[in-house]
Task: structure prediction
Amino acid sequence: SRCRCCANRNHEEHIGGDCRSGRQQLRQDCAESKGARSGLQANRQSSRLSEDEMLTNCNAVAVLTADDLERAKAFYTETLGLRLQDFPVPGIAFFVAGNGTTISIYEKQGAQRPDNTALGFVVQNIEQMVEELKTRGVAFEEYAGTYIITTGPVKTAFFKDTEGNIIGLNQIDTH
Result:
């Protein structure tokens, strides 16, 4: 139970839960406790990360699963043209994409794939990229008779990798 005077659990041990007999000691203990807590809060606040130290400047890693990691490696290197990084842990592969982004794929038999886009690439010319990937055997999802969907300034096309992960290509017109 809590101290009846200040609701602090720690004070019950010192005064038996009855503040009447030790009200002065209780007030002193509470003041010391509050002072220590505010000192901790000040230390926590001073050790907070600045905006430049937050995730804004960190590279991101997309994490996907594969039933067959070797098949996924072949698709991501040979079909999509990504470079496989050396990584000494079995059952996982890392691929380098643009601007320091990384794609991680780990083997997990029978993993449920999300029904949303798991990975997206921003491209300069989506029509050209779709045509190139089609020549490499990629089957794009068709929506209303087209592979490329235009929503405002964004053009998007979707396909699945060999493991069933949905991948999106996006072209953003900034003009």
Notes: The first helix runs from residue 11 to 15. Confidence is low (pLDDT under 50) at residues 1-9, 11-23. Residues 158 and 168 are 4 Å apart (CA to CA).
